[in-house]
Amino acid sequence: MAAGAFEDIPSKIFIGGLASYTSNESLRSHFEKYGDVEDSILMMDRVTGRSRGFGFITFRDTESVDRVMAEAQVVDGKGVEVKRAVPRDPSTDSNNNTRKEGGSQRTKKIFVGGIAASTTEEEFKNYFEKYGTVVDAVLMYDKDTNRPRGFGFITFDTEDAVEEVMLVADHTISGKWVEIKRAVPKTHGPPSRDRGGGGGGG
User: Fold this and answer.
1) pTM to 2 decimals?
2) According to the 3-state scheme, what is the secondary structure of the chain?
3) In a structure prediction context, what are the per-residue pLDDT tens digits for the chain, which is 202 residues long?
C-alpha cells in the first residue's frame, strides 16, 4: 500500500541559467538521455516572447532525476544550474496555511536568510534575476558595526516570479545554502501593543 505514496513524489527539476537561444525542443532533447521525459517547459517572457533563461523538466521516474543530479549539466554549450523542484502541496494552498510560514499567500517579496558575509548586493540581486525582474534587492547591515546581518529581501515585479523561486528546493548563493520564505505583509494594527499611548479622549 505504500506504493501510492511514491506515486505522489514528483520527478521534476528546475533548470536555470539557460542560453537565450535554447529552445524547448533542445531542452527536452538534452534531458531525454537520462530517462523518459513527460513534460518540458521553457519559461518565456509574456511581453517580449523571449526565453527567461530557465525551465522545468518532469521525468517519468525519480531515478532519472538522480542521474541528472549526479553530473554537471551543459545545455547547448552553456553550463546550467539544475535543482530538484519542490512539489506544491494542494492541502496547504488555500484552506490550510499552518504548515508553511505565510501559507501560500501570493506576494512579490521574499525573505532570504543565511546569506554569506562575503555576498555583495550585486551577487545577491544577480542570483534571483533568472527567476524574473528584480525591482529591489536589499542586504541588511548592522547599524553600529556596518557588518552584514546575514539576511535580506528581494522584490520582484510579479508574484509569479516568487512562485518560481519557491518551486526550487535548494538555493545556494556564493557557495552557501540560503533559506527563502515569502515575505507576507503584516496584519493591520499591532497585535500586542496598546494603540495610542497618549491623547486619551474621554
Assistant:
1) 0.56
2) CCHHHHHCCCCEEEEECCCCCCCHHHHHHHHHHHCCEEEEEEEECCCCCCEEEEEEEEECCHHHHHHHHCCCEEECCEEEEEEEECCCCHHHHCCCCCCCCCCCCCCCEEEEECCCCCCCHHHHHHHHCCCCCEEEEEEEECCCCCCEEEEEEEEECCHHHHHHHHHECCEEECCEEEEEEECCCCCCCCCCCCCCCCCCCC
3) 333 333 344 688 999 889 989 999 999 999 999 999 999 999 888 778 888 888 999 999 889 999 999 999 999 998 998 988 876 544 434 333 333 344 457 889 999 999 999 999 999 999 998 888 899 999 999 988 989 999 999 999 988 889 889 888 788 898 888 999 998 776 544 444 444 444 444 4
